[in-house]
From TrEMBL:
EC identifiers of the protein: 3.2.1.1
Protein name per the record: alpha-amylase
Domain Glycosyl hydrolase family 13 catalytic: 5-310
One Gene Ontology term of the molecular function aspect: alpha-amylase activity
SUPFAM superfamilies named in the record: (Trans)glycosidases (SSF51445), Glycosyl hydrolase domain (SSF51011)
GO annotation, biological process: carbohydrate metabolic process
The Alpha-amylase C-terminal beta-sheet domain, residue ranges: 281-339
Species this chain originates from: Hibiscus syriacus
Key words of the record: Carbohydrate metabolism, Glycosidase, Hydrolase
Listed cofactors: Ca(2+)
Family per similarity comment: Belongs to the glycosyl hydrolase 13 family.
Domain of life: Eukaryota
């Protein structure tokens, strides 16, 4: 969730909206539909954008079909038979050409009737005031279908979860795969910057030098294509109760000091914002287009972002020497300074879902 009273826009991701029985009940049962609409209207009243968690890679069936698997969906919304399930996950559809979500029937998006039904469902989500989409497990179906779904349903903002293994000593290929996915959507979706999450959580544990790539830029998608990089340090999969890949708990504020002060579209995890009570007091002004990394050592990272903000993380000693700079905020192993002609602490973008910032030329456009 992005949040804070000083943000121009906030959004809350609502989970469990996949094409399974639990998710479909909102459209099937009038009482549940009424509750959902009331919730969405209340969010809108408080200027919170509702983002739907679009789980369309896999679907648990209601009835056993081919091979004795639960690969049929009978008697519910979007009643599909085994032909809607890929042949490599127990169905009678086409074989998947991308990654499988193991252990459950995976949806065959190459089927026209499947895409038609999904588009109808996405349009319904938009009609009840969902404004934004989060595409879960985006590795599990071709990005060209994401492009089709976005063009047909017209969400205001979209982000894809393209998460695979990262080699910390050769992460360019990792961020390039994310960029390739964005390109394949027609460049109309953003993506979670899993590369910067991985590098950042290694950096704060004593390898701060990793935060400058060989070209002197930030690592991750943010270093190549910031307007398409949604930065984060944890979400409901990596952290929280699932904790598949959690950010080091004693370095949380270092992580936020970094992503909130750097280009990209930063988000704050719901658990950190509410359960940890880590409310940001930052104000906002237009997103800078440049990052000048001043120090990148094993125990110190410092950078000048735009011409208004300087920050550092790590145990190393560093502070601006000019009297034109004032300490704005500090915490465990982190400090942020602002120029005296700026009223802001962190450079939040005025429109966190816009595409107006200046991007570096990324390899897929070379």
């Amino acid at each position: 969730m992005t949040g804070g009273e000083t943000w121009k826009r906030r959004f809350l991701t609502l989970q469990n909206l996949g094409l399974h029985l639990y998710g479909c009940r909102y459209q099937l049962i009038p009482f549940h539909q009424k509750l959902l609409k009331a919730l969405l209207q209340k969010l809108k009243q408080y200027k919170v954008r509702a983002m739907a968690d679009i789980v369309i890679n896999h679907r648990i069936g209601t009835t056993k079909g081919n091979g004795g698997m639960y690969n049929r969906n009978d008697g519910i919304l979007l009643a599909w038979n085994e032909h809607a399930v890929t042949s490599c996950t127990g169905g009678l559809g086409n074989r998947s050409t991308v990654d499988n979500f193991n252990g459950v029937p995976n949806i065959d998006h190459s089927r026209r009737f499947v895409r038609k039904d999904i588009i109808g469902w996405l349009k319904w989500l938009r009609s009840v005031s969902f404004q934004d989409f989060h595409f879960d497990f985006a590795r599990g179906y071709s990005a060209k279908y994401v492009k089709e779904y976005i063009e047909e349903a017209k969400p205001i903002f979209s982000v894809g979860e393209y998460w695979d293994s990262c080699n910390y000593n050769g992460y360019d290929s990792h961020r390039q795969r994310i960029i390739n996915w964005i390109d394949a959507t027609g460049q109309i979706s953003t993506a979670f910057d899993f590369t910067i999450k991985g590098i950042l959580q290694e950096a704060v544990m004593g390898q701060v030098w990793r935060l400058r790539d060989p070209q002197g830029k930030p690592p991750g998608v943010m270093g190549w294509w910031p307007s398409r990089a949604l930065t984060f340090i944890d979400n409901h999969d990596t952290g929280s109760t699932q904790a598949h890949w959690p950010f080091p708990s004693n370095h949380i504020m270092e992580g936020y000091a970094y992503i909130l002060a750097h280009p990209g579209k930063p988000t704050v995890f719901y658990d950190h914002f509410y359960d940890w009570d880590e409310h940001s007091k930052a104000s906002r002004y237009p997103q800078p287009s440049s990052v000048r990394i001043l120090e990148s050592q094993y125990n110190l990272y410092s950078a000048m972002i735009g011409d208004k903000v300087r920050m550092k993380i790590g145990d190393g000693s560093w502070c601006p020497t000019s009297r034109e700079w004032t300490l704005a905020t500090s915490g465990h192993r982190m400090q942020c300074g602002k120029s005296n002609d700026s009223s802001s602490i962190f450079p939040f973008i005025a429109d966190p879902f816009g595409t107006g910032e200046c991007d570096a030329r990324h390899p897929s456009q070379a």
